[in-house]
Amino acid sequence: MAEQKLSTILSLHFLILSLYASSFAIAGRVVVPLLQSYEIPTFKSIFNVTVYDTSKYGILQLNNGLAQTPPMGWNSWNFFACNINETVIKETADALISTGLADLGYVYINIDDCWSSAKRNSEGQLVPDPKTFPSGIKSLADYVHRKGLKLGIYSDAGIFTCEVRPGSLFHEVDDANLFASWGVDYLKYDNCYNLGIEPKKRYPPMRDALNASGYTIFYSLCDWGVDDPALWAPKVGNSWRTTEDINDTWASMTTIADLNDKWAAYAGPGGWNDPDMLEVGNGGMSYQEYRAHFSIWALMKAPLLIGCDVRNMTAETFEILSNKEVIAVNQDPLGVQGRKVQVAGTDGCFQVWSGPLTGHQLVVALWNRCSKAATITAAWEVIGLESGTSVSVRDLWQHKEVAGDAASSFSSKVDPHDCHLYIFSPQAAYRSEI
């Protein structure tokens, strides 16, 4: 069924092939050249029909049936860095269950760097640090699996990890088989100490080893965007980092969003652009900034990997991370990455981002990256609706319909560094012409 579903979705993606258009100006607004139209022959549609280019999505070679939607879960690095141990991992798994986050889809518990001993054992195998993981990874995987969750682990496509633990370069088969024997479900594969070997040569051997291991493991490439992985990684992994590491600042988050946006055409079911993990709840940004962070990551179909201490979340952090309507945007089965479609204002800080969803709907974000409140407008010609289309608008943060019959455009006043996220539902009925 998974392969059939993937085939169906990919067929839809390739049906709506489109070329980039040239940039043009509408009343002083710069429209980003990533929208194109393609008339789907079996439907009379009030769309243009506007679709968002997916023509460069690669043919997945992993064939592991994973990542039909972006992965959701938690990773240890952003909050704990090297200060991890098996107790933290178990308590985090417990917290995902008790808070209900697991029920919302956050099922991966991913251990980042520093889980292993400083050296391989006499047989050349990786060994969990006996001080911090005395029970071993297999025992930890069993604990997580009993709760209906999945365990992720970390290694490096170099001779050492970034924290100078043993890497997996030239040990791919042994390490993949070891991870499989432990029941590991996810591998984050980093890029430190790589001996200057290009990523295109270092990352496929681990893909092949994972495929041959006999256990299905999500493969997350983390080469920091080196050599533009979106151009080749869809044939290698289930996700690929398009940027350097995120940090818990507004400047980092916005810069990374823009960098990831460039590669929107390459993402789709089976393989996703990865702008790095969520910083929501770590304290470096405001509530509005974190809400924007989560909104744009969801719209971009980014992996939603929580990076805070879920054992001690504030109510505001939980409110953001548990928004079912925003999560549903990220997990929409159409799997088209939303993107920036319009910029205006000083330095382009008044922005409209948008993307298609199943059911002929659109997700639309009005993002104010300026320092003053402003009214931002999404015009129909920008987001790809026919000019006469009537649209109902649902606010995903207020959880209510805010317009029943918007036509030609929709505007809202957005506070500084905030982001409003909407579902646009065209009201005209679709009729089959068959």
Question: Can you give me a brief rundown of this structure?
Answer:
This protein is α/β, with parallel strands linked by helices and 434 residues long. 25% of the residues lie in helices and 24% in strands. The protein starts with a helix and ends with a strand.
For the structure shown, list the relevant keywords.
disordered C terminus, 8-stranded antiparallel beta sheet, 12 helices, 8-stranded parallel beta sheet, 434 residues, alpha/beta, disordered N terminus, 22 strands, single chain
Written description of the protein model:
- With 434 residues, the chain is an alpha/beta fold.
- Helices cover 25% and strands 24% of the residues.
- The protein is built from twelve helices and 22 strands.
- The chain has helices at 2-15, 77-80, 86-98, 137-146, 172-182, 199-202, 204-212, 250-261, 287-299, 315-321, 324-330, 380-383, and strands spanning 24-26, 29-31, 35-37, 43-44, 50-52, 72-75, 108-110, 150-156, 186-190, 218-221, 239-241, 272-274, 304-306, 339-344, 350-357, 361-368, 374-379, 390-395, 400-407, 409-414, 419-426, 431-432.
- Strands 1-2-14-15-16-21-18-19 form an eight-stranded antiparallel sheet. It has an eight-stranded parallel sheet with strand order 12-11-10-9-8-7-6-13. A two-stranded antiparallel ribbon has the order 3-5.
- β8, α5 (172-182) and β9 (186-190) form a beta-alpha-beta unit.
- α8 runs parallel beside α9 (287-299) and α9 packs parallel to α11 (324-330).
